[in-house]
Amino acid sequence: MTGPSLRFTTVSLFGDMPTTRTEYICGLNTRSESRSCSGHSATTPPTNVRYEYGPLRAYIQNRDLHYSFELEIDKRIYTAFQANEYGSPKWIKPRQTEPQKRSGRTVHTHTETIDTGERRELFRYTARRVVTRSRQTRDSRLLSESECDGWYIDPPAAWLNLHPPAKPGTFYHLCAGTGERDDYKFTEAGDRETGFVLLATRTHKSSFEDETGNSRAHESVHHEEVTELSETPLKPDLFVPPHDFKRVLQLPDGVRYAPAYRLRLRWETLKDSLHLPNRIAKFTA
Q: Would you say 146 and 205 are in contact if contact means Cβ atoms under 8 Å apart?
């Protein structure tokens, strides 16, 4: 296994819900460790929320072996399946979708990027403070506004290798549903920030209509901070399950798969049950 390495830990606070995750990168292989978190409250709107954390799990995408692994560390078990470049099972084919009718409306997203000129040293890197503001409208109606106030460094080699910056003029938009499709327009001012974020506060405000047709607004605030950062070379065994972990079809409390999917998963597991341990052993040798 070759390629630059990176390990970093990020502490996030979404509202008042704290979470932590640790990411590992070596070449095109990745590992992410975290615990799921859910909040519980006896009142509506929620007050005195009690947070519960799940077991520590690791999600590995090994592009050298073309496998995805999910580990439950304490129970010493894991799942595995052959994966495509995006981490999805190879045997799942993309669904054909019907073309959507155009609505005639236009969603316009304008993004402004401002380098404040402020600099500080973080983890022996020179970080720059950059504020990014985005505003989205549909025709003349405001849909959302967001701001990210962050400190960025030039991306480490491992991050840049895995996440090369998009070409100028490239925009991404995620949409879902089977209704009419809006048209999209993107504009921007200032130089787009393509660095690695170490510290950021993100504020998002959205506008919507409730059941009675009244205009409502919702605001959320998300803080994140990288608390550990290292480019020390990583060992290959981080990107495969340990040899004494037991392979299972599904981790406890996982997604309930459809019967046809479970049958296919059993068959795929049976097919590679003999050669996968040998491939893992060669990978870590």
A: yes
Instruction: Tell me the mean pLDDT in the region 83-102.
Output: 80
Q: Are 96 and 83 in contact (CB under 8 A)?
A: no
Residue keyed to tokens 């921007």: 188
Looking at residue 114, its pLDDT comes to: 98
**pLDDT per position as a tens digit, 101-132:** 888 889 999 999 999 999 999 999 999 999 99
Place of tokens 């099972």: 89
Of 31 and 100, more confident = 31
Q: CA 85, CA 62: separation in Å to the nearest integer? A: 9
Residue 232: half-sphere exposure toward Cβ, Cα within 13 Å = 5
215 in Cβ contact with 137 (< 8 Å): no
Strand, helix or coil at 226? strand
The residue length of the chain stands at 285
Could you give the count of Cα atoms lying within 13 Å of 264 in the half-sphere of its Cβ? 12
